[in-house]
Amino acid sequence: MLGASPSADAPLVVVDAGHGGTNTGAPGYRDGLFEKRVTLEMARCVAAHLQLAGYRVELTREDDRYLSLRERVRRANELRADRFVSLHFNATESHDQRGFETYILTPDALDIDGRALRTADGVPRPGVDLDTALLLDDVERGVALRSSAELALSVQRRLRALRGKETDRGVRQDSMHVLLGATMPAILVEVGFIDHPQEGPELMDAEVRQQVCAAVADGLAD
User: Fold this and answer.
1) What's this model's pTM, rounded to 2 decimal places?
2) CATH number of the structural domain spanning residue 187
3) Measured CA distances, 143 to 48, 163, 182, 183 (Å)
4) Which of 6, 9, 127, 186 has a CA between 20 and 30 Å from the CA of residue 93?
5) What is the pLDDT along the chain (222 residues), one digit of tens a residue?
6) Rounded CA gap, 134 and 130, in Å?
7) CA 181 to mean position of chain CA atoms
């Protein structure tokens, strides 16, 4: 990837480009434009900005390939990432919605769904017995929830400063499957509505996309 060469002990951010391969994601404002392509471009862009700021960065996918939601989180856990962000674009059947929003998991999702996933997606802990490792996973997931909320607010503030308060849809909680099982602060960012007749073309503009990338990266760095 382009950018500065961060130090070996710099914080590691895993950037997930939503969808990919047969999972095309949301359709755009014009025929042939799909979310999977734009999220990959955005992920590369965010990664470059983070590297310039001195962070280590890994992408969950570097090309147009299918990855399950569990594989994405598993990769972040295996790398012992300090932060995880999954990038997405919204769409509706009416094509009349616009704006940006950031998601974190609900406490219920951590308590129930995270436990169901944990045996296969925990952090590697050499020399630690399985029961203790699972307990540590649970503790880290609980601690990460508060930090996830702070991280989401930070990204949302940066996007609000760039895109304006009228399209700020806020920080939300949901059982987002791509965040389940993460043992680090983890957020999902819906950058905007790819199908909106005005916002869609705006987000495809190279200059605007660079500004949005910088805002997301700055929010992660804050």
Assistant:
1) 0.86
2) 3.40.630.40
3) 28, 31, 11, 9
4) 186
5) 444 478 889 999 999 999 999 999 999 999 999 999 999 999 999 999 999 999 999 999 999 999 999 899 999 999 999 999 999 999 999 999 999 999 998 876 555 554 545 555 566 666 666 655 555 565 556 557 789 999 999 999 999 999 999 999 999 998 888 888 888 999 999 999 999 999 999 999 999 999 999 999 999 998
6) 6
7) 14
